[in-house]
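Here's a chain:
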Amino acid sequence: MAEASIYEIHDPRFRQMIVTSAGLDELYSGCRWAEGPVWFNDANQLLWSDIPNQRMLRWTPESGVSVYRQPSNFTNGHTRDRQGRLISCEHGTRRVTRTEVDGSITVLADRFEGGRLNSPNDVVVKSDGTIWFTDPTYGIMSDYEGYRAEPEQATRNVYRLDPMTGALAAVVTDFTQPNGLAFSPDETILYVADSAASHDESLPRHIRAFDVVDVNRLTNGRVFCLIDNGIPDGIRTDVNGNLWSSAADGVHCFDPAGKLIGKIRVPQTVANLTFGGPQRNRLFIAATRSVYSVYVAVSGAQLP
């Protein structure tokens, strides 16, 4: 079994979710902090952010790596909307944007109740088209991943945006540093990482779960799981409802009840991940200076 040592089995079910003969491939090395991978199946390409270097990079199997956008406004997390357009969180401009088909940029959100957003971090799009994103302060804490500034929001929130009307609502306001987020496959649960332990080990390093009710309200917030090595940053779910999270020692996989069932070891601290490839069974991993990929035996739930 090639590179079987990259897998850490905590539950026999995890063996059915991995391909033990599939090794960990390093697709690129040379980032300062790789983040926000997003897969475009129609273009057979992966985009991601290299935040401190102010650029977004593109990888294709045919051509390798090239610069997609520079400067990038310290862009962090990305996703696609249901029309296939790129949705991005920008630390430098403290806004959420959409890249149109012609390459122009539309600002979707940059203020809430009269104040600038902190530094939008990660984003997902629900099947009804609403855009959900987190807004910690990482991008304004220094000039390394944005521009140092004082927060204009009293809290660090999870937001829901209706792009049709522009209505922006804070759906959760009690996070310390909200980070990655992902819906369960049936969209009845929203998972949100709290990564506050990145700067203070006494603060949260867990992922919370919320029930989605009445289409767009969150209730019954609870701790879903703890990360035992590092912090949770980017997260994704697969079609069976398992949750895959970044961590200091690699990628951690939790079953729908929040039990750790396995890990994929990665040589560098993982910031984010996404499923991609034609069958959505290739896990792309943004890890500090590099981007890796590994084939797994499940498919990601995120669409398109």
About this structure: The chain is about 0% helix and 50% strand.
